[in-house]
Write a structure and sequence with these properties.
Length: 135
Amino acid sequence: KLAQNPFALAQFQIDLWADSAKAWAGAWTGEGEDSKDRRFRDGRWTSDPVSRGLRDVHLAIEGAADRLIETLPEGDKDSLRVRFYTRQLLSALSPSNYLALNPAARERFLETDGRSLLDGFRNLLDDLERGDGRL
């Protein structure tokens, strides 16, 4: 539908840029709400402006993707695939999944002199072994 209506697509993009800019600006002013998303429950996602900005921009992108997906036909097999893979991709790209971007994981890494990272790798290897190389 959006491909047939370039003005709607342009408005979607403008809204995404506006939401992202608002999220990033709000991170520095302390405006906005705390996230109810379980990935960002730790208070450091709110207290640190950089972490808050990363969180809020990511959530704005997820919200925009959800709105875009809502324009797809309901129940169509291809639409269901797009929904599934979009959700998987955005979840994988969450800043909570990356040591350098996750304030709680960074702090734990420093507190344990890196042992928390080694423990995580051991868990990954155990999971791979149990699943014959599959997660």
